[in-house]
Fold:
Amino acid sequence: MTPILVAGPAVEPVTLADMRSTLRSEGGEDALIEALIRAARLLVEATSRLALLEQTWRLTLDRWPRDRIVRLPLAPLVGLEAVRVHDGAVFSTLDPGLTALDPLSDPPRLLVDATAPEPGRPMAGIEIVVRAGFGAAPEAVPAPLAQAVRLLVARWFENRGDALDDAPMPPDVAALIAPYRRLRLT
Structure:
């Protein structure tokens, strides 16, 4: 089940004005700063395995799990938008009464009633659309994660074109993310 981004966040966890102030930039490099903010958010999200700001994702399954519990790879969950099942011709939206969402588990879980229909095709017959993130506004993002974004942007802005060490994540940034990082057992 690979998450597919349907709609990204409307804002970033750090504003352009905030980063301009942090970087002491007069505004001539706004496009670069905005690109760095976006890249830093994506890196913090990938490292923490958390969606920082509200965004919509689609998950596709071939069939229901045997126990009818779908373990969702996105957190924190804001809500369930839709569950659709392909009947062999078209997707139909499942009655919300046939599902129960447990957003507080890690990973979040979706319980599907035994009476929910099976998909009518062998592959990609089920779509689950969810909203994930701490909230829609930058203030909803935990302060240490927003600070991790700021530190990455500042590091990249100050070291443009310079070869940085091979460490995948600066230690100070990794330390800010560590308490929030979702662990995965494989």
Observations:
- The longest helix spans residues 30-48.
- The chain has a mean pLDDT of 93.
